[in-house]
Amino acid sequence: MTVSRRQFLKSAVAGSTVVATACIATDADARGNMEMPEGALGLLFDSTLCVGCKACVTACKTANGKPLATPPELPYLDKTRTLSPDALNVIKIFKDGKATAKDRAEDGFAFMKHSCMHCVDPACVSACPVNAMKKQPDTGVVTYDKDACIGCRYCVFACPYDIPRFDYGSAAPEIHKCQLCDHLWKDGGFSACADVCPTGATLFGPVIKLKAEVARRKALKAGEATKFPRRHVEGQEFTKEQPMGEYIDHVYGEKEQGGAQMLMMSGVPFDKLGMPDLPEQSYASVSETIQHSLYQWLLGPAVALGGLMAVTYRTVRSEDENDED
Amino acid sequence: MSEHAPLGGKLVTPVTIFLAALAAIAGVFLLIRFVFGIGAVANINDGYTWGIWVVYDVVIGTGLACGGYAMAILVYILNKGQYHPLVRPALLASVFGYSLGGFAVIVDLGRWWNFWHILSPGYSHLDSVMVEVAICIALYIAVLWIELSPAFLERLGLKDAKRKLGRVLFVFIALGILLPSMHQSSLGSLLIIIGNQLDARWQTVLLPLLFLLSAISLGFSVVIFEATAASEGFRRPRETHILSGLSVALIAVLGLYLGIRFVDLAMRGELGSVFAADFLSVMFWIEISLFVLPIVLLLPSARRVNPRMLFISAVSMMLASALYRVDAFLVAYNPGDEFSYFPAIPEMFITVGMIAFEVLAYILLVRRFPILQGTHGQPRAAMSRPLPAE
What we know:
The structure holds two protein chains of two kinds.
Chain A: H1 5-27, E1 41-46, H2 55-63, E2 90-95, E3 101-102, E4 108-114, H3 123-127, E5 133-135, E6 142-144, H4 154-158, E7 165-166, E8 175-176, H5 192-196, E9 202-206, H6 207-219, E10 225-226, E11 242-243, E12 262-265, H7 283-295, H8 299-324
Helix pairs in contact in A: 1-7, 1-8
Chain B: H1 14-36, H2 52-64, H3 67-77, H4 87-108, H5 129-156, H6 159-189, H7 207-233, H8 240-267, H9 279-298, H10 307-331, H11 345-368, H12 379-383
């Protein structure tokens, strides 16, 4: 196969097109993690305070118009174990061996809340092709709009916490996830799970205040007597004085994926409680950096198209000349 | 251009009747899906929310439909005019592969009536990888029909229209190379955001590049597969002498893919994990073996003119790229222990029915429209057209 000068030139044009595209790509700014809005609202879940009463599961369902799954003989106990279109918040139990002591990894047990983390840099929002999943700029709450949604379920696929749920059994399905009970705010209400929690295990409020409460708890020693705020971090309700639990040195949601507006404290390592081990750099930022590098202002594709057109024009023309011969 | 000719022959045969029956069964299940919801026919769930409709029909289906793309690169960019006879049949397969991929998306979308949102500036979220995929695939389907339209204009005797189209066709050919490069790589990019839910042996920022190369190798393998199958099925002269030349391109693409795959694993410090004694390592090595086999088979140039060797290589390459995509989207994806997925029977029938429809339409069109290389006249001269003069 001999390579003519003209062929070589054409290949060179095509080759340099690719190189030029790649150069533009590396010039584009890498996108770092998003920042938390100043007025961010969220939840603090403290596994050492949770007694597994599941009042939050029932309250969440009532507040969001979902049917309860309570057996007639135990009307206070909702047996829902996994998230579904009818359950936006569940309490899971961790058990090890004989399960004799609470908040202990070996031969112990602990309770864990599973609901939307309201990520600072959410994968579902980055993934959503139609802005149906949105991070509200003021409160940082991750909301869902069914009227925009096309039902592609990329959010379900992308979420590292396995939160969004879809109605597979409906001809007009929707995505279901915790929206921090934002529909209750206008009447002065707040997240039903925190509102109902008798022990202060789930606490609602501005994330800044929740972080201060986390710092206060970390500064206390295990066994030291203290009162825990209940329901709303800015409210004036407290538990009775009680001894502090023992925490592991990891506040989940502080760093994971660039942070979350739900923070979690526990006496048992979070991987045992079913939480994924996630890097600080958000997957959304990695994905968007690649997309922006390749497609910012469509500069790369435009240059590539120009180069391709130059080459195809010459090939087609030389073919036509050949046909006429 | 009289080099293409309708194949002629009967349209109603046992084969076409069988294909039509499969398509009809799928039609019934589709009706059930649209009336009662996706769950009535499919096993997808909140762990494995993308099943075979996405992974086979779209991710692999559009990959298999990359024949037109791969041939366009070869003929119009690398200027290998001698492959021209393969372009039209490849384009036809591409047009069906993509159109049905597009249809499969509608079937899979829960709120399909909102589909237009993804292309509408009022809704579209440009940071989403899926928007890039959707816009590019939609545009490419249009471009494919335009690229193929000379065949229809020729048949309808619209010479003037064909000549006018011919003048601007280079724009569409260029788009026909650009758009698949964009969305085939983006199919890989779709997976970056799932992070460590995808096993480290597959998760890499080079996913777009690896998906692009797998699309090109799917494209070439499909061209060889289809040309061989068409020669046998329609009892036409073999195109081995054309196809054998493709194997050089094929070896280059496969070699590049394998090189990048292993260098990437090494750079990420994951080289050791491919030797782990687990199921995913086995899948990994099956994938790699299928990629290596065609190289081994076709490296000695004497074997490249052997139609059986070419066919085996094409099948191996097709399976390799398809398995790579299935592994990346389903097998190596771990949404947690509580979930499992295997497609339901009706779910599979919908996919099979759509493929049957695709094959049926291909047969009907090549029998009635000038798609395949004509066998009367001077076929050999037309097949081995000289390269453009200096």
